Amino acid sequence: MLDSAFFPQNEVERLDALVACRLMDTEQDERFDRIAKLAKRIYGAELAYIAFIDAGFQWLKSTTRDAIPKVMPRECAICNYVVASGEPVVIGNVHTDPRLEGNPILDLITHRFYAGVPLIAGSDLVIGSLCVLGDEERDPASFDLEPLQELAAIAMDEVSFWQTIQELKRKSEIDALTGVSNRRHFDDALERATRRAHRTGHPVSLLLIDLDHFKGLNDLAGHRAGDEALRRLGALLASAVSRPDDVVARYGGDEFAILLPDTTLDGAHRVGEGIRKKLLNEKIPHPTRQMVTISSGVACHVGSAMNSELLVSHADQALYSAKRAGRNAVFQGVYA
User: Fold this and answer.
1) pLDDT, tens digit only, all 336 positions of the chain
2) What are the DSSP calls for 177-241, one per residue?
3) Which domains, from first to last, does the chain contain?
4) 299 phi and psi angles, rounded to 5 deg
5) Spatial separation of the C-alpha atoms in residues 202 and 57, rounded to whole Å
6) Taken in order 293, 308, 190, 202, is the CA torsion positive or negative?
7) How far apart (Å, rounded) are the C-alpha atoms in residues 207 and 19?
8) Is pTM, for the whole model, over 0.70?
């Protein structure tokens, strides 16, 4: 069985490169499907797939048929040998290869032959593999890897193109006033976080944040003062998170949202409480209050229980509880 500690020396850098691609947990894409289909046809294989491997899981971006699980623990993935070595891996018979002895994946597949080549980002950062599998045993020494490597290079061209498109899309998803993400980007990120939670079994937390007595600020101090408060809160929220998959968004009007994948309810509450205290230190003046404050509601769903609509609803309920209790508070909602 694969050693779970079998990681490349540049593991941190390659994970950063994978995150930067923003491909994990995205929907099916014909551009990648075509590459897998070509690999299957060229080699007369029973199965071809494009796999990406993060810290704990292998995830298939494209597969010619569902002969192996779309998601599996990294330690069970034959493709982990490709990632760990940075080199092509060809196995004549996976059921007799001593490296795979005891691997539970062998109970799920009838294929014998395996060949995989690395998907390389930058100079030597292997983020996944392009693989073909066959029902019959083959001689690794006589297998021609060149077409598979060429297709892998084309796959990485598609990854680069995908990144460019996502960056252009990202620029259209920034709220002009506050500089954080807009509602459209938040909705997309929430659906992606849902797919990720279902894949990994990890938690997803959400904070909904509302400026207290914002109407009074606008009516009495003017819209310019209201806009300035929104800008300063947006900047404060953006500085409060730093992980690539965390999302700060203007949810609507004076309401903001912070999406925190892989974060527990208590962890999200600490983030919210830290933001509340930092805003107090900003001492933004309010015409009827001493200063501008915020109320926040926190909710968390875990793994298969993650439901995007319910998560928002649960965080919203907690937000209104904070307001009813007197505002300037962070309330925890549902932990599902």
Assistant:
1) 445 447 899 999 999 999 989 899 998 899 999 999 999 999 999 999 999 999 999 999 999 998 888 999 999 999 999 999 999 999 999 999 999 999 999 998 999 999 999 999 988 999 999 999 999 999 999 999 999 999 999 999 999 999 999 888 888 999 999 999 999 999 999 999 999 999 999 999 999 999 999 999 998 989 999 999 999 999 999 999 989 899 999 999 999 999 999 999 999 999 999 999 999 999 999 999 889 999 999 999 999 999 999 999 999 999 999 999 999 999 998 787
2) TTSSB-HHHHHHHHHHHHHHHHHH--EEEEEEEEETTHHHHHHHH-HHHHHHHHHHHHHHHHHH-
3) 11-170 (3.30.450.40), 183-335 (3.30.70.270)
4) -140, 160
5) 12
6) positive
7) 23
8) yes
Q: Using DSSP, state whether 284 is helix, strand or coil.
A: coil
Long-range contacts of 107-114 (CB under 8 A, 24+ apart): 108/68, 108/69, 109/67, 109/68, 109/133, 110/135, 111/46, 111/47, 111/67, 111/135, 112/136, 112/137, 113/45, 113/137, 113/138, 114/78, 114/89, 114/90
Which residue's structure tokens are 């460019």? 164
The DSSP code for 305 is G
Encoded tokens for 132? 């073909």
Give kind and range of the element (H or E) at residue 150: helix 146-171
In whole angstroms, give the CA distance from residue 234 to residue 245: 17
Cα gap 234→24, rounded to integer Å: 27
* CB-based contact 54:18 (threshold 8 Å): yes
Residue 317 structure tokens? 């309920």
Q: Which residues are catalytic?
A: 254
With contact defined as beta carbons under 8 Å apart, do 203 and 148 qualify?
Answer: no
Sign of CA dihedral 300, 303, 305, 307: positive
User: Pairing state of beta strands 330-335 and 294-302?
Assistant: parallel
Q: Select from 73, 62, 54, 72 the least CA-distant residue to 16.
A: 54
